[in-house]
Amino acid sequence: MQGPLAxxxxxxxxxxxxxxxxxCMYHDQGHIPMKLLYFESxxxxxxxxxxxxxxxxxxxxxxxxxxxxxxxxxxxxAVSYAELLSRSVS
Length: 90
Known about the structure:
By secondary structure, the chain is mainly alpha-helical. The protein has four helices and two strands; from the N terminus they run ααββαα. It has helices at residues 7-15, 27-38, 62-65, 73-87; strands spanning 43-46, 53-56. The chain has a two-stranded antiparallel ribbon. The two termini are 24 Å apart.
C-alpha cells in the first residue's frame, strides 16, 4: 500500500500495472479518470457499507439505453465484482 499519491499520475500508473486498485476519497476524484480510461467497462464499488454495492461507472444513459446502443460490459463487470466480493464475506 502506498499513498497518498499525486492524482494527476496515479491512474496512469495503475493502468500500466503498478497498482491493482486506486482508492479515492471523493466521488469526482475517481470518476473523471475512470470514465476517460474505462468508460464502457468501469465499475464503481462503494466501501464501508454493511452490504456489497457495485454499479456501472458510466451512469444510467436513459437517453440511449432503450436504443440498444450501449455496451453491457460495465454492468457485467459490476455483477462479477459483486459475486467475487460476496465470496470473501464471512
